[in-house]
Design a protein that fits this description.
By secondary structure, the protein is an alpha/beta fold. 39% of the residues lie in helices and 20% in strands. It contains 15 helices and 18 strands.
Length: 424
């Protein structure tokens, strides 16, 4: 294994695993596996890039750091020469972390400075300019992320956000340096006195320049786009073979579980509901114990073959009201448990295709499926929409699509099920 990724949630793990597996033409990508948490045994032979997906994005800081360092230990034990700390392309976190504390702990463990910080993902509209994060043509704090129910982002200045989370210095490498090429960027990073360097990126070409400049760097941090240029460093050096992972489509029972409150997911739910049965989760009922996974499973099985969708998505006002009444962490934990229990029950009943929306929901469901099947490695299949691949688990495979809340076209759910059944 050459590249090891520590992802702070499951959808982010799928996103960057997809980037590493695809790579960039003409070289292509690496043979990539995604893991649900830190594996207990060694990686399978032939894996060139490994992605460990944690649920550390919204965990207490100490817990997030401990999990990330454990992931680092496993990845270095597999021979990884370059570590990537992957966080969301909207950089969302609280004033306490967890991006800064985890990045600082990894940099200290690997004895690094001038570590790249770049959440840019231009294909999905995320760009960094003069150290500020944009979502399409809006600054981060005007993009809707300012009302995120768990990690509202009210400041687009990445240097300021990161500086508030870490005692390490944070510098900037602006666009003109990146545009001057990999040599100029490599020199700027080498001259950096600060521990971290926010690097501008407004295009895929900038990400490829960053990838070339960090060839040999022990640690890189960013969104999934940061990995775009990393595979070709090893392929050009003759140290990786790459190649696509075989994918076997799966027919049969399928369901969609949506726990994201993002505008994109709400639009996808509305689009799907026009032609398919949907069930809105009774959140007060969940909190009171009167609405359970049995109710969800009953609805799904009653509508087998109709692409049924169950969702807890709501407007920011609705979500805020629930959090005010019951507590933010309590609501999140109960809903995650509901979706996890639902996934276990559906897999036990023979369901082999699950589409999941929302980072926390995806983490709960993926871990439940892995535990049920007694597997920890997920193979990377075809891409549904930018940043969202199909994941294949087990020998008689169960297929998962784990979608970050803000990703995907309006018809994402139908598209995901079709590709799972027919192939790309």
């Amino acid at each position: 294994m050459l590249i090891g990724v520590i992802a702070d949630d499951f959808t982010g793990g799928s996103d960057i695993a997809n980037t590493l597996a695809k790579g960039h033409a003409p070289e292509g990508g690496l043979r990539t596996a995604q893991y649900a948490g830190v594996p207990t045994g060694p990686a399978a032979p032939g894996i060139e890039a490994g992605v460990i997906s944690l649920k550390s994005r919204s965990a207490p800081v100490d817990e997030a750091v401990t999990q990330s360092l454990a992931a680092l230990d496993w990845l270095t034990a597999q021979g990884c020469e370059q570590i990537v700390f992957k966080y969301c392309s909207t950089f969302d976190s609280t004033d306490d972390g967890n991006i800064g504390p985890v990045a600082e702990a990894l940099a200290r463990a690997l004895d690094c400075r001038g570590v790249v910080v770049c959440p840019a993902f231009p294909t999905a509209g995320r760009t960094v300019y003069q150290g500020h994060l944009f979502v399409f043509d809006r600054l981060l704090n005007e993009s809707g992320m300012q009302t995120h129910p768990l990690t509202p982002m009210t400041d687009p200045d990445l240097r300021r956000v990161l500086s508030a989370q870490t005692s390490a210095g944070v510098g900037l490498v602006p666009h003109p340096v990146v545009a001057a090429g990999a040599s100029a960027l490599r020199k700027a990073l080498g001259d950096m006195s600060e521990s971290f360097a926010v690097v501008d990126a407004i295009s895929d070409e900038a990400l490829l320049t960053i990838g070339e400049a960090v060839d040999g760097a022990a640690l890189v941090t960013g969104g999934s786009g940061i990995a775009l240029g990393l595979p070709r460093n090893f392929i050009r050096a003759g140290r990786a073979q790459g190649g696509e992972t075989p994918f076997a489509p799966v027919k049969g029972a399928a369901a969609i579980l949506a726990g994201s409150c993002s505008g994109a997911t709400r639009g996808q739910v509305e689009h799907h509901a026009a032609c398919h049965p949907t069930l809105a989760i009774d959140v007060p009922g969940v909190m009171a114990g009167t609405f359970t996974a049995d109710d969800v499973v009953r609805f799904v099985t009653e509508h087998a073959g109709q692409a049924p969708l169950v969702y807890s998505s709501g407007t920011p006002e609705q979500v805020g009201a629930m959090q005010s009444e019951f507590g933010r962490e309590v609501v999140s934990a109960r809903l995650d448990a509901l979706f996890a229990d639902t996934a276990r029950a559906l897999i036990a009943q023979g369901y082999r295709r699950l589409v999941v929306a929302g980072g926390e929901t995806s983490g709960a469901v993926a871990q439940a499926v892995c535990d049920t099947l007694s597997v920890d490695a997920m193979r990377i299949g075809p891409e549904i929409d930018p940043g969202v691949p199909i994941l294949s688990l087990g020998d008689a495979p169960v297929l998962l699509a784990l979608k970050s809340g803000n990703f995907g076209t309006p018809d994402f759910f139908d598209k995901a099920l079709a590709i799972m059944e027919q192939g790309a």
